[in-house]
Write a structure and sequence with these properties.
homodimer, about 200 residues, elongated, DNA-binding
DNA sequence: TACGATACGGACCGCTGGTCCGCTTCTCGA
DNA sequence: TCGAGAAGCGGACCAGCGGTCCGTATCGTA
């Protein structure tokens, strides 16, 4: 157990890189336009420092996204309804998807960058496995899906409806307003759950 | 209207590149492992030839995938039911999604490569716009979705359930058998359409 | 066969993510 | 306070990528 506390300048630089990367990703249209060299320059550090702090490009993006994700995660794990554990599944599932949608809407740049930079596939991240398992278990506790063996795939499909590039496409290129998008996703989720939807 | 017929060696090389690329993408785990230089070498041509024939990497992959997609497309546009136009929407929608799923299962490598290489987003391709419009219109003709304004998003969400990387993840890494995956997607589609599903 | 149009091919380019190592800066015991 | 050594810094450097260019070889035609 050799736990050393990091040097002061190290943490300062780490935070500078974090802030610079956040700003750059937020300010640029496509995440590919932001190079590691750009980030290092904007943070006022050398590339070596950047890579020492976060390992590689994916590590940096993951750290950025993780920071935004954390409040949602705690709200889901130990918060009040409708996100927290003390919520009946038919209510919690749409709440969860809505939270995910909002997160990706508010952090499109990072979310797209993460899914794109996720090595091969966004499906091999632990983040994804976590959300999927949670959603699958909730679906299993809803009559329409319990025991059919399809809850697993349904969880994948529902999560796919909130994929970052789709959200970015609709909200960004498509110009769909935030509240409308949320309503559409809610409609879709309701239909999957078998919950009643407003008639056409 | 200056229509010139291409030289013989040009078409031969074009086909050699096509075949070589097809084989290489099929044989490698990740599409990123296949470089343009690899393809040129495998085809026995220079890189210049390769790029002259297909423009750029995306163009080549699109040509490969397009060749596999074409039969499906014609079957949808002018084939017999359940894919063709003379099919009631509640039957045609699942048939369409199933066809798309099978296509991506059979050509995982290409499909993943295409979605990944699709410049920024797979949502800006004309392929996607085509499928989305078709699916949206079909949904509009199904009572549960007609006029709700949500058919557009539902079409996106249903297509997202057949995203290439998800399919590849489930079929490849996850080891889900082909027929089971088709059944799961059918279940999911049915629940979205409001069609009866087998009870749990 | 000879000649112009066409296509070939691989050296070359710009740029990227990532590494390396001589030098600076911090930390901490004396 | 000081100094030695660990920890960290930074930018020159590297390998590999997609893509370009142009002198040269090949094809089609008269």
């Amino acid at each position: 157990m050799t736990e050393r506390k990091p040097r002061k300048d190290a943490t300062r630089n780490r935070e500078a890189v974090f802030a610079a990367a956040d700003a750059l990703f937020a300010g640029c249209g496509s995440p590919e336009d932001v190079t590691m060299a750009d980030i290092a320059a904007a943070a006022g550090v050398g590339k070596g420092t950047l890579f020492r702090a976060y390992g590689d490009r994916t590590g940096l993006i993951r750290a950025l996204y993780g920071a935004r994700l954390e409040p949602v995660r705690t709200a889901v794990e130990s918060g009040p309804p409708p996100l927290g554990p003390d919520t009946p599944p038919p209510v919690r599932v749409p709440a969860l998807l809505d939270a995910l949608l909002c997160l990706k809407l508010d952090n499109r740049h990072l979310a797209v960058a993460l899914e794109a930079a996720g090595a091969d596939s966004p499906y091999r991240t632990e983040h994804y496995a976590h959300w999927h398992a949670l959603l699958r278990d909730l679906l299993e506790r809803i009559p329409a899906w319990a025991g059919t063996g399809s809850a697993d795939f349904a969880a994948h499909a529902l999560l796919a409806a909130t994929r970052a590039d789709l959200v970015a496409h609709l909200a960004g290129d498509g110009g769909v307003p935030r509240e409308e998008l949320r309503a559409r996703l809610a409609d879709f989720t309701a239909s999957v759950l078998g919950t009643a939807r407003p008639a056409g």
